[in-house]
Amino acid sequence: MTKQRLVILGGGESGIGTALLGNAKGYEVFVSDNQKIKEKYKQVLIHNEIEWEDEKHSENKILNANIVMKSPGIPDNVPLVKQIRKQGITVVSEIEFASKFTKACIVGITGSNGKTTTATLTHHILKQELNVGLAGNIGDSFAKQVLEDDFENYVLEISSFQLDDIVDFKPEIAIITNITPDHLDRYNHQFKNYVASKFRIAMNQTKSDYLIYDADDKVITNYLMNHPVQSTLLPFSLRRTIENGAYLDNDKIKITIDNNQIIMPTTNLTLEGKHNIKNAMAASTVAHLLKIRKQTIRESLENFQGVEHRLEHVLKINKVQYINDSKATNVNATYFALESMDAPTVWIVGGVDKGNNYEELFQFVNEKVKAIICLGVDNEKLINTFGRMVDVIIETQFVSEAVKIAYKLAEAGDNVLLSPACASFDLFENYEDRGRQFKNAVRNL
């Protein structure tokens, strides 16, 4: 029998993981990357005798594939991808490919914001009592973990780009945290395409699977009304009583599944802000479904340390709190950050604008923001939008300078918040790089 040929486009974390898994499962594997493959990944390919190329795509080695695994970073409208599809070659994401080789119970988490926190928190609770891996958009690739660890359960953080290339993938438990406009450049600037993409997480689910979602999110509830899913629905809400699912009653989270109710106090949650109560509800609902003890859930919620670059308290200097929210790459994420500020705030914002509409931030900027520091190559839109709302608005292209300016502007009791509402690619490698530079600058004050 001839070997199936697996071609992998993109030699990053997901690509290398898929190459290793495919190689172990008897595929003839070829990895092709248009950019330079990182040295550490190259070494893995060489060590495992997997054929690869970088800084080019050789069509003669790609178009003879039986199956192509495409990195989520590569858009569908690239000529090479169009050609692959035109030839009838199946294109899948790493999530789709790896799920074929595990019988594990999968918890899949998507949404515009909150998915990393919800995934990390869910994993933090489950790992107290279950054998569970954390993968997807986070940590070691899912494919690599399926090959090396084969956990009995996985919590996967899944982006819309990864969902675009699933075929049969089906999580037993799916979560949609929220849906707000993001990445529209990849969806023909049509919000409805992006929404449909998120809902692919439930497309293969049946009645015995669960969809946990924010019932306060009109985009989600409207979509469900017009496009019913097969899944058993478990909504969560801060505003109304939920019979099957989770809701907030005074300061208590109440979760009911099949008449079995658990109650969690929110007074000792380590995570601040209303949006984090929602993340806690989603994670606790998963834990309750998977029969984790109530005591364990409560303790885990109270000792969870949060996610790096997400409302991360860096240092307090001269009674000023410096907060790193570099992961806020869209307006909705920054909305949550500003909403949770409880003191006058010097706000550092800017980067690559993805067609942002800043209107929903106006109320918080008027109430809480005393000065704005624009950190980007092109800050014109920010200055036009917020220039009249604050007394001080300053531009810079250096994090170290932004932090020094903030240090001069902030007084005892104030916050300095980096929450860019934009992508980071104009001045930084990625949002992690931006967040680390911010933290280093604060520590060097």
TrEMBL record:
Per the record, the major location class is: cytoplasm
Ranges where the Mur ligase central domain occurs: 109-287
- Binding residues annotated for ATP, in chain numbering: G111, S112, N113, G114, K115, T116, T117
At the top level of its lineage, which domain of life is listed? Answer: Bacteria
The transmembrane segments are none
Domain Mur ligase C-terminal residues, every copy? 309-422
Enzyme's top EC category: ligase
| Alphabetical UniProt keywords | ATP-binding, Cell cycle, Cell division, Cell shape, Cell wall biogenesis/degradation, Cytoplasm, Ligase, Nucleotide-binding, Peptidoglycan synthesis
**What would be an example GO MF term here?**
ATP binding
**What this chain does, per the record?**
Cell wall formation. Catalyzes the addition of glutamate to the nucleotide precursor UDP-N-acetylmuramoyl-L-alanine (UMA).
Give the UniProt family note. Belongs to the MurCDEF family.
Quote the protein name from its UniProt record: UDP-N-acetylmuramoylalanine--D-glutamate ligase
Q: Which gene carries the instructions for this protein?
A: murD
